[in-house]
Structure formats: C-alpha cells, structure tokens
Amino acid sequence: MNLTQDQLQSQVSFPPLLPVDNVTQSRLNESFYNPLLYPNLPLPPPSRLPHPSLSSSSSLPPSSLLPLDDSELASLIWRVHEPTTVALTILYCLSFLVGFVGNIMSIKVLTSRHSERLAAVSATRCLLVNLAVCDLAVVCMCMPITLGNQIYAVWVYGDFLCRAVPFTQAISVSASVLTLTVISVNRYYSVRCPLRARSLFTRRRIMVTVAVVWVVSLAICSPLVFMNRRNEIFLGASFVIPVCQEVWPGPRLKQGYTVLLFVALYCIPVTFNLTIGFLTGRRLWGDRNRRFMELDPRSRALHVSRLKTRKKIAKMVVALVMLFAVSWLPLYLADFWIDRVPHPPPWLMQTRPFAQWLGLTNSSLNPICYCFIGDLHRGAKVFRTHYHRRIAALFSSSFAEASTAMTRFRHRGEYSRGCGGCIHRNHPKVV
After folding, report:
1. Is residue 66 part of a domain?
2. Its GO CC terms (predicted)?
C-alpha cells in the first residue's frame, strides 16, 4: 500500500458524527483510545508506540503515516509483543484471578447463615455484599475487555459493549464509593447511638438504601451510555479501523463532566468517609471506654467482645476508603492532564494504562481487606471446613458404595467359578 501524501490526506475521512477541526476534538472514552487518533502527534515506530489511554481524536498529518504498509499497520494495532503489553497482561491476569476468587468467596461467606460472627452486623453485611457485587462486575466485565483492547487496538466488541463497558466501570465505582459512605455512617451510629442505629438501619431500610445508591449511580453515569459509540476510521480504500470513542458536543462539556465525576465520586465521598472514620475511631479508642472497667466481669467481657468487633469493622472501613483513594487518584489526575493539554506527553500516554489497571485492581484488593482486616478469614475457614467435610462425605460414601459393589462382584465371581468346577467334575467330557 503505497499512498502519496495528497492521496492519504484526501482518503483519511471520518463519519459525519465526528467533526474534526482545531476547535472541537473528539475524546476517546476513559478506558479505550487508539494510537492512530493522536492529536497531531508524530507517529513513532510500532515498537515505541504509546499505548492506549485517553486521548483526543483528530486527523493525523499525512507525513506521520508514510510509509505504512500492511505489516507496519498490523504491528501498529497488534501489540501483544510490546513489553508494556506483556507486563499489563501479567498484572491483569493476576488481578482477575485474585478478584474473581476473592469476591466469590466474600459473597459466599457474607451470605452464609452459618457465619455467627456477622450475625450482629447484618446491616454492614448487606452493604458489603453490595460492594462485593460491584467489584465482581468490574472484574468480570471491565478487566478482560480493557486488556483485550490493550493487546489489539481495534475495537472488535461491537457498539453495545462500547457503551456498556465504560458505563459498567463508572456505575460500579460510583456504587462502591456510595456504599462505603453508607457503611461509614452505619458504623458511626452503631458506636455513638447503638439503640438508634438498630431502629434506623433495619434490613428493609438497608435494602431501600442500596436501591437508592444504584439509582443515584445510574443517574450520574447515564451520560456515558449516550456519549460512547463505535466509529470507524478509514485509511484509504482497504483499511477500516473500528474504534470506541466518547464523543461530546464540545470539549468544555466533557471537561465539566470529568470535574463533576471527580468531585461527586471522589473528593466528597473520600473526605466525608475519612472524617467519619476519624470520629468513629476517636469514639472507640477514647477515654470513654474506661468507665466499663467498673462493670462486673461478665458484662465487661461482653463489652470487650463487642468493642473488639466494632474496632475491626472500623479499621476495615477506613482501609477500604484509603485503598479506594490511592487506587483511583492516579487515573483521575492522568485524565485531568490529558483533557487540559492539547498535546499530552508520550510518557503520560504510556503510563496511563497502568493507572487504569490500578483503578480496576481496587476491586480485587477489597476482598483482602475483608479477610485480613475485617476478620472474615475465620468465616472463610469455617465455610471451607464445611465444604471440605461435605466433599469428603460425598467421596467417602461413593467409595463405600464402590467397595460394596466390588465385594459383591468378587463374591459372585468366586461362586460362579466354584459352581463351574463342580459341573466339570461331575460331567466328564465324552470322547
């Protein structure tokens, strides 16, 4: 494919939905962008090509694509041998394995009726189940497709997933941080006003609160369903490259929505949760607990047990909030930088996929907080022991049935051989 500069300039065209000029530039979505859409950036060799991230889409200078034959274009969009892609593949596989197994086990333990340690904190347990469901959605849907688009730059998943994947990521993150906010408020009331907390956080009200969390998340993230779309880039008559883009009417509207998400789903919830966590911790570890030393031994032991459980849950909530803040902050900062500058530096484009991985990995690290800080590993051990006992009983019963059948078959064979010998001796052959 040998194209002159004039031919390439006339043949590189965009659909009518993608007006490209110096004022209005189309932005790719948070998860996916294509290196062929860099805004007026010179295209480096395929081995040094920046990797997918958030970027502006604009027409490339003709000189940046010349010469470009079939093999060069294939190496441009197929990046499985890139060192960065190999590293991200390993990281995503580990995150997927840990997140899938961890969230499944967390849901099993949290919904198990045999979990006596969580019986007294049913409200927190329901909210943690909702959080685990959000994390499982991110792990099962967002991680594989994000990695697939990192390996193969062409969007091959259709228009539905182009709209669904960014929306699922956004709504899961929104529901997660709002659920953490409800958990923080619940734990604060449980420490400060235990009797009021029991009447306020009933099971029915918790279910209504979870529904409200999802409705609010749906309202905040719904623009992504309409702004994301699958489009095609035409490179001459023989190359059509489908991409998933986030197309807004104007860059100011896109920047305003990014600021809205950052303030509503990061700054306010993280600040509020850390403040509530500080107040809860001061209540739990303050001097107020010294008066319970004057109680009788039985009442004091009961109070110490409850206090220990509340402290563990408070530590877990603060750890979840801190983990959320650390995981998603690099991605927010990278997207802010890319949105604000017309020509993002190449190193930012190369490191942005790792910020994307770090944000998604938050869904894989939450179950670790449940187990090692929230003390759910004991419930997991009980569940695992119960599971192993059932499996052992199943195999032992099957082995016993097989042994009985084998013994019967062996006895029947010996009886048949014995009877056959008697017939042979009583009836000699006739010659």
Report:
1. no
2. membrane
Range of the domain at 249: 83-375
> Where does 111-240 have alpha helices with state H?
122-137, 143-151, 158-192, 194-200, 203-221, 223-227
Helix, strand, or coil here: 114?
A: coil
Range 100-128 average pLDDT = 74
Contact 221, 260 (CB under 8 A): no
Give pLDDT tens digits for 286-341. 755 555 555 556 666 666 777 777 788 888 888 899 999 999 999 999 988 888 88
Q: What is the pLDDT of residues 340-383, one digit of tens each?
A: 887 888 898 889 999 999 999 999 999 888 776 655 545 445 54
Claim to verify: residue 370 and residue 393 sit in the same structural domain: no
Mean local confidence (pLDDT), 244-252: 87
Tokens of 168: 């699922």
Indicate if 395 and 315 belong to the same structural domain. Answer: no
How does pLDDT run across 51-67, given as a tens digit for each residue? 333 333 333 333 344 44
Q: Are residues 165 and 93 in the same domain?
A: yes
Which residue do the tokens 């889409």 mark? 57
Chain Cα centroid distance, residue 34? 22
CA distance 251 to 40: 17
For residue 23, with 0-12 CB atoms within 10 Å meaning exposed, 13-18 middle and 19 or more buried, which class applies? exposed
Residues 262, 393, single domain; the answer is no
Last residue in a domain, options 351, 375, 399: 375
Same-domain status, 430 and 358:
no
Beta bridge partners, 240, equal 234
| Residue that has been written with the tokens 């570890």 in this structure | 285
Please work out, in degrees rounded to the nearest 5, the angle formed at the alpha carbon of residue 172 by the alpha carbons of 54 and 270. Answer: 85
Other Cβ atoms less than 10 A from the Cβ of 276: the count is 22
Query: Is residue 180 a part of any domain in this protein?
Result: yes
What CA–CA distances, in Å, run from 118 to 204, 364, 369? 18, 22, 15
| Strand, helix or coil for residue 155 | coil
Count of domains forming the chain: 2
The residues, any chain, with a CB within 8 Å of residue 136's CB and separated by 6 or more, are 99, 100, 103, 104, 107, 363
How many residues does the structure list for the chain? 431
